[in-house]
Amino acid sequence: MKSKGRLVGQRWRSIGGLPSIFLLCLFLFFAGLFGSTLVSHQDVQLLTVRPRSRVLKSVEEFDVLPNGDTGEHSLTSIPFQVLSWFPRALYFPNFATTEQCQGIIKMAKAELKPSSLALRKGETAENTKGVRTSSGMFISASEDKTGILDLIEEKIAKATMIPRTHGEAFNVLRYEIGQSYYSHYDAFDPSQYGPQKSQRVASFLLYLSDVEEGGETMFPFENAQNMDVNYDFRKCIGLKVKPRRGDGLLFYSLFPNGTIDPTSLHGSCAVIRGEKWVATKWIRDQEMDE
Ligand SMILES: *[C@@H]1O[C@H](CO)[C@@H](O)[C@H](O)[C@H]1NC(C)=O
């Protein structure tokens, strides 16, 4: 059985017939002629204004393929934008609905505790004070009776094509005014943290709120910028991603060969106005123990 799939894309329709092609050529000729005289009279400033980038939408129909046992018989459309290749970072606009975001905040709010850090050799809770000032809580999809996290987790698995069994529980975080997270890696370098049973491959951040000002996720080493010894880990520089409710951000901490990508260093800029809520899912190279 064949079914029709629909996907957002661009499509040229044939106009058909020689006479119409001739008319089209004629039209383009005159359009060019008039256009060029018009333009030459315009203020040049007008032409240098960069158009706002828009996403063109049109609908294309085609046949989907027969699916395997574990596959699906319809198409999924999860739009994304490549933000960077160094690190590999993708932005997913409108990944979750407003209701889903509000539901997650509601379930997390009562359980918040000051966030903690994985400590390196020589580090203590005392001497790392200020590095991470948010509050947070952990919740797995199975603990969430509303079913929201189940849907989100499934969508993340599709977007990454890494099975759900590789994900840690969601870490829901709140940053209030002045709170931040200095630049750090999500992966654990064995030379600093000791031998690791499994490694974090990628991180998916779902922004649960808008932030009026500040609170960006930043990648200070994006495209190998600022990678000098004098870099101040508290600084909010490099590629910055502004939190918007419902949007997702995915980045990979490891190269395809399994070594840590140095440009995956990232942090959370201090919130200046408003409040930042985010749900983080860390994805590992091994399945999580149940
Ligand atoms: C792993 O991949 C990265 C990026 O392609 C490369 O720079 C690095 O040399 C590789 N490391 C090893 C040990 O293969």
UniProtKB/TrEMBL annotation:
InterPro entries: Oxoglu/Fe-dep_dioxygenase_dom, P4HA-like, Pro_4_hyd_alph, Pro_4_hyd_alph_FE2OG_OXY
Organism per entry: Solanum lycopersicum
GO MF term (any one): L-ascorbic acid binding
Bilayer-spanning residue ranges: 21-39
SMART domains (UniProt xref): P4Hc
Swiss-Prot/TrEMBL catalytic activity: L-prolyl-[collagen] + 2-oxoglutarate + O2 = trans-4-hydroxy-L-prolyl-[collagen] + succinate + CO2
Presence of keyword Transmembrane: yes
Keywords: Dioxygenase, Endoplasmic reticulum, Glycoprotein, Iron, Membrane, Metal-binding, Oxidoreductase, Signal-anchor, Transmembrane, Transmembrane helix
Topology versus the membrane: Single-pass type II membrane protein
Keyword Glycoprotein: yes
Official protein name in the record: procollagen-proline 4-dioxygenase
Cofactor(s) this protein cannot do without: L-ascorbate
GO cellular component, one term: endoplasmic reticulum
Domain Fe2OG dioxygenase: 165-285
